[in-house]
Amino acid sequence: MKTITYKQGMDLDTILKRNDDEREDIRNAVLEIIKGVKKEGNAALLYYTQALDHCVLTHLQVTEAEIDEAFAAVPAELLDIIREAAENIRDFHEKQLETTWTYTPQPGVILGQHITPIERVGLYVPGGKATYPSTVLMDAIPALVAGVKSLVMVTPPGRDGKINPTILAAAKIAGVHEIYKIGGAQAVAALAYGTETIKAVNKIVGPGNIYVATAKKEVFGKVDIDMIAGPSEVLIIADENANPVYAAADLLSQAEHDELAMPILVTTSAELGNQVIDEVYRQISEDLSRKEIAKKSVDDYGFIFIVKDLDEAFELSNQIAPEHLELLIEHPMDSLEKVKNAGAIFMGAYTPEPLGDYFAGPNHTLPTSGTAKFSSPLGVYDYLKKSSILSYDQAALQSVYPKIAAFARCEGLDAHAKAVERRFED
């Protein structure tokens, strides 16, 4: 980990730059896959699944029998935990639900917004290095709370043609409507353009590798997408009283995600910074199943920033706009107003980041790579559409139509002006 004394005006973009620039060869490969799926449909999906996932499929859609078999294979205790997490997630997201509203600013005028759910949504769930039933819950439940009628999940199969049982169990508990055994850019293309078996969706959500992220960029416009998720990051603001064991453990909880993950500690105490560094490497030396990934993340992208006071700590944090922000300080709620840019805020020593990943209820699909400066966590609002409502009666329009016509003519749009004027001729 690198220790840096923070100074105002530092070039943080250069200091924190990751070597994850988009590669043209990946984009070209993705474009070829999308073209193939658009042209060949199911045949392309079967071909790419065999070529890239080394799996020969006999059918694309997961059957009810396969779901029941997977459900039976998951330990009952884990199923209960998934159910409880699902309830917490549902309870939280129900608070976000919006409904149609109108108001009458003057007699004869009704204005408002009509709120409707997106009709069909595709949910991408990664496979490969790790299995993420939590992603199923976090992405599916807000959609169902919003009222999405057709929720379609895609996830890559193993070489045996099966989906991880916990993924299917989470999908059943969440209430996903359709599940298909495809992954990668070909799955994104199938969701966007449809095939003989898979009906096209209106929006695609969910994280994936660089091929999935690139495919989502390429199909955006044909469909909506949630976000382009970058590598995970956590920033911990800690004072001199913070527990270095907790801080180190929380940094590693993100470092184990990806070699490009970025664990950052911002502290007012150089002594604590040194203690956290020692503790990070001590904990890595323990039997972590992903210790090599965590160590590379810490070595390459781990930072300790030393600041003069907490005001400077929050200034630095707001510039970085982290995905996860932990406040290991006394009375963190008193400092909440100082946070301007963060995906999720974890307050106090007993609110570790994994609590948000799995169980508390707020969504763990969060803006990364500084995009918390302008975007928000995934929520019910991402699955809703808003249509404006306008209603004027004759008297209300008559009182304003000359102003509308004048405005239209100042833009050179005579037909606009006449559209209101003709209603009051003769």
From TrEMBL:
The active site is at 323 (proton acceptor), 324 (proton acceptor). Its cofactor is Zn(2+). Binds 1 zinc ion per subunit. Pathway: Amino-acid biosynthesis; L-histidine biosynthesis; L-histidine from 5-phospho-alpha-D-ribose 1-diphosphate: step 9/9. InterPro entries: Ald_DH/histidinol_DH, Histidinol_DH_CS, Histidinol_DH_monofunct, Hstdl_DH. NAD(+) binds at residues 124, 186, 209. GO terms for biological process: L-histidine biosynthetic process. One of its GO terms (cellular component) is cytosol. Zn(2+) binds at residues 254, 257, 357, 416. It comes from the Bacteria. Substrate binds at residues 232, 254, 257, 324, 357, 411, 416. Its EC number is 1.1.1.23. Keywords: Amino-acid biosynthesis, Histidine biosynthesis, Metal-binding, NAD, Oxidoreductase, Zinc. One of its GO terms (molecular function) is zinc ion binding. It catalyses: L-histidinol + 2 NAD(+) + H2O = L-histidine + 2 NADH + 3 H(+). PANTHER family: HISTIDINE BIOSYNTHESIS TRIFUNCTIONAL PROTEIN, HISTIDINOL DEHYDROGENASE HDH. HAMAP family: HisD (MF_01024). Catalyzes the sequential NAD-dependent oxidations of L-histidinol to L-histidinaldehyde and then to L-histidine. Belongs to the histidinol dehydrogenase family. NCBIfam families: hisD. This is Histidinol dehydrogenase.
